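In this supplementary section we document a worked example of the pipeline. Step one takes a protein sequence of length 107 as its only input; no multiple sequence alignment statistics are reported here. Step two produces a three-dimensional model, which step three serialises into structure tokens for compact storage. The input and output of this example are shown verbatim.
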Amino acid sequence: MATIDSNHLSAFPDLALQLLEESLELNKPDDPILSSLSSPEARQFTTDRECTRRCFWLIQCMGWINGIYTYRPMRPRSVELMRQVRLPVDETSFELAKITQEPGKYF
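The serialised model returned by step three reads:
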């Protein structure tokens, strides 16, 4: 039976965060881009950004759970991104594609 190297698996959250930050520009604010778009484009942009934020927070939660069981500290870049990325909006606003800059109240 093959064993799983936990050091090898810990690279995946880092790769996911790097993808979200570099390719999807997770750490950049929505405001400047959103103001230059028409209404349908703005709704699509808002939905895409919200999906990106939700992926980020899912990766964070998985990292926290992993850290609890493996006694690993949080990655410094994750902590920094947590200060920059707002919480997801509520489910109703997301389902209705409501354009909002307000963060969600609950995680």
